[in-house]
Amino acid sequence: MPSVISVVVAPPVALLAWIGRQGVWALAVIVLIGVVCPPLGTVLKPYVSEAIFILLCISFMRVDGAALRGYLRRPGLIVTATLWNAIGVPLIAGQVSVLIGLNVRAPDLFLGLMLQMVASPMMAAPALATLMGLDATLVLVTLVTCTALLPLTAPVFAVVFLGEALKLSPVLLGVKLAALLGGSLLAAAVLRRLVGAAAIQRHREPIDGVNIVALLVVVAGMMETVAAEWLAAPAHMLLLSVLVFAVFLVLLATTVVVFRRAGRDVALALGVMACQRNMGLMLAAAGGMLPAATWLYFALSQFPIYLSPLLLRPLIGARREPDAPAETIPRGS
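and the corresponding structure tokens:
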């Protein structure tokens, strides 16, 4: 006879498992809900930082230390990819933006763009690369190394490019990033120790469901005003939408070109990673102290990120061998 606890717990777990099985379609639905349900965004916006912490915990909890040590057998490529994402991308983006005067003509947009470029890759990047049939080996280890460097690189770029545009001292930004990443890593280590790697793998579908629900909180909170902005200023929103997709594609294409000599699949996987920037992490570190235009830029930037598995998978899949296996990696956010 089932216990009272199992009767109470089983339905929510089953629901989370079903949500977790929806894969790339769930990501597209998240974006749709965020746009068409502004009241939900209003309710969830205060909990964006907590949702990001949960996403980080789940991601770190799923990282296999032994697998990471195995991936480090190619340190040259890892170091190059880390330097490109942590230093090359924000440095080039900052210089180009200043050269064209974006920092003067649209300082809030410049702030959003630079925080995006400074951010490390999303923890979901390996999972998204795998969903698109790409080799995600280097993606996993590179995003870990980039994330480890973020508390050091973010304050430097904040001083060099942002100045007073960021209503938070660069040192405090670094401290908050370190605390957020360190706290989530510690919590993940404790959870992994308590429940064990086998249990995490066995319950991967409900955990995927928790991931998707947390992503809904983040995306809905960011997109609270998107629908109203479209109604109020459709031409401006159209231009901004074109910009975020252009930034996404430029990052993808530039990274593929930079790493083309490493092989087509490696270059594509690193390209997908480079354009999946963890803006939510920067948002959480900034404590929500960002201008409305910066929030809006972050919100619209979620569209290419969460739609990329649907938009890019046919193109990338057509360039791969029909029987080429996709490497399985821990999924995260």
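(Above: one complete record from the training split.) Residues 292-319 form the longest helix (28 residues).
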